[in-house]
């Protein structure tokens, strides 16, 4: 298909990796439908005009984008730190930490699992998609105290990729599971310390870049004979 007649929907396209993925599609001359949470959200500028589509993924999917979509890239996600379970009390009341954790699970499963599932299935039912590419996380392989809701939602996302690949075939469904490419702290000293710690936990001895993730996602999106696969882009971080 001529790239100029290809339309790609990128969720979470306002910033970070989602924005970079939208840029990559624009660079190929494609039409991009750029999702953001609400009309009030201010996206970072892109290199070319895009079609905006707003949906708060914590809410029901009331309507689909008006455009016919060829490729769906699922970049939007929710990440919240939670409680370490061995620190939870036996109290399960409405104001308890365990109740907060239950609500956190519901939010993560909605944004990271159920919303992507519904969007992909409904788009494909309206007009068959050529591909779905989902961004996961190397957290699908490991667990850390205080991150259970996020980790479980990502592990479930790996199952979703395989299920969608079977259910939506011949639409190809794959995922990229990045390691840390965008450190979470802004203080230069703390950032350097965090990056050094990450480098020490990778086989390649360095932190990755956003372009590494984008290249992997675009490869999977266009790989005509690859489906149901999860490509880890983490420098071998969790193989040590």
TrEMBL record:
InterPro entries: NAD(P)-bd_dom_sf, SDR_fam. Pfam families: adh_short_C2 (PF13561). The keyword Transferase does not apply. Transmembrane segments: none annotated. PANTHER family: OXIDOREDUCTASE, SHORT-CHAIN DEHYDROGENASE/REDUCTASE FAMILY (AFU_ORTHOLOGUE AFUA_5G02870) (PTHR43639), SHORT-CHAIN DEHYDROGENASE_REDUCTASE FAMILY PROTEIN (PTHR43639:SF1). Belongs to the short-chain dehydrogenases/reductases (SDR) family. This is SDR family oxidoreductase. The lineage of its organism: Bacteria, Pseudomonadati, Pseudomonadota, Gammaproteobacteria, Lysobacterales.
